[in-house]
Each structure stands twice: as C-alpha cells, then as structure tokens.
Amino acid sequence: MALAVNIMDPKSLIATFGLIGILAVIFAETGLLVGFFLPGDTLLVTAGVFTTTTAAHASGISPLPLPALMIGAPLCAVAGAQVGHFLGAKYGRKLFDRPDSRLFRKDHVEKAEHYFNKFGPAKAVVLARFAPVVRTFLNPLAGMLEMSAGRFLVFNIIGGVVWTESIILLGRFLGDRVKGIDKYILPVVAVAVLISVIPVIREIVKGPKKSGDTDERKKPPMPSGRHRR
C-alpha cells in the first residue's frame, strides 16, 4: 500500500511515520544540507500538540509519547548539528562551491556567515536554532571556520535542548488549552513558530554588545574561514 505523505505538511508526516519520522526529520534538517527545506519548528510544535490525547484522536492520529519526544528530539538535533559541523570541518568551502546548484544557494551560506560573525560563534550556534535555513547551514559553516568540535558541542547541546524542548512544550500547552485545535492547527502552529523566533529577532534588533571583542567582530570574514573563538 502506497503512502500518501506530504513531507512539507507536519500533520501528514506525523500521521504517516509517527515518532520515528519526527526524529529523522529533525536530524536531517539540522545535520544534512539537503534537509534545509524540511519543517523543523512547525513539526515540533505539531508534535507537541499531538502528545495530547484529545487533539491526536480528533485528527485520527495515535498520541505521541511526550517523554520519548522530549528525549529523542534534542538528541537528534544535537547529533545532526554535530554531523553538519564535521562535514564543514572536513570538506570546507567545497560543500558550498556549487554555483549551478538550486539547493546550495549562495545567499543561504551568506546569511549563516552573517550571523556567525555578527554574534560570535558561541551565541550564533545557539540563536541559529530558532532561525529556519540558518540553523542548517551554520553548523557546517562553524566547522569550516574552524570552531573546534568540543566547543561547538557545548553550545550545540545548549541550543538543541532549548530549541526542541521549548517548542515541544509550547505545542503541548496549546494542545491542552485550545479546544478544537485540530480544526485550525496550521494558523496556531504559525503563531507558535513566530513566538519561537522572538529571541532571534530581539538579538538582531539589539545587535552585538559593545565589549572588548567588538572590533574583532567588525572585521570582515576571512576567505579561508579562519575564525577561532
């Protein structure tokens, strides 16, 4: 029997593949460059909603196990990002030097590099979790710019846990509080995702702090990608 699944529709993904599908998408979206188009934020919010029995049953979906989701999602997010960092460290700019590619667009890489240099490596790794597309490309970029694997792992864990847990719990809260949420889940999820990117918007508006390393951050990125911090 063929599976009719829309990979851009979180509800369709969850209904077809369940928890395993959610974890696979989170890994691919954060770790594999070709996964940048996959739903990350919307999938996590929707998954959180469907951990509530009422919302899940109303949509004809088996309720998702909240403990397994809360453990599995951050693990896959961290593991995926670490793979992305490894690929960037190993292959460097060769990953992005594909001018004729529709997937590896130059503006995606430039946007990730902008955040990396604007906020500094540590802060960028955490904040990028809340910025779709940027979170996919920033991980290999961090490896390419020689942010050490150990240092990256520390902030990768912080960002991965905060991102996944906060969005899942937001979905859970909405599933518990909003009656009939299954009937208008897409607009509710859209609002929830907008709320989730507020930390990034605030940081962009504030800009980098005026501190001793401000001058360093103002320096243009080196073409060779040397950026040790």
Question: Care to describe what's here?
Answer:
There is one protein chain. The protein is mostly helical and 229 residues long. It has one domain. Helices cover 66% and strands 0% of the residues. Helix 4 (66-91) crosses helix 7 and helix 4 (66-91) runs antiparallel to helix 8. The radius of gyration is 18 Å and the shape is elongated. The protein starts with 9 loop residues before the first helix and ends in an 11-residue tail after the last helix. Mean pLDDT is 81; it is low at 210-229.
Which sheet architecture does the biggest sheet show? none
Distance between the termini: 52 Å
Count of individual beta strands: 0
Radius of gyration: 18 Å
What is the domain tally? 1
Please tell me what the overall shape is: elongated
> What's the helix count?
11
Q: Which class do the helix and strand fractions yield?
A: mainly alpha
Helix amount: 55-70%
Summarize the helix and strand pattern as letters: HHHHHHHHHHH
Low-confidence stretches: 210-229
Biased composition (Basic and acidic residues): 208-219
Subcellular location: Cell membrane
Protein name: DedA family protein
Pfam family, one: VTT_dom
Salient structural properties:
229 residues, mainly alpha, disordered C terminus, DedA family protein
Topology:
Layout: H1 10-31, H2 41-49, H3 53-58, H4 66-91, H5 106-119, H6 121-127, H7 134-144, H8 149-177, H9 185-196, H10 198-206, H11 214-218
Helix pairs in contact: 1-2, 1-4, 2-8, 2-9, 4-7, 4-8, 5-6, 5-7, 6-7, 6-8, 8-9
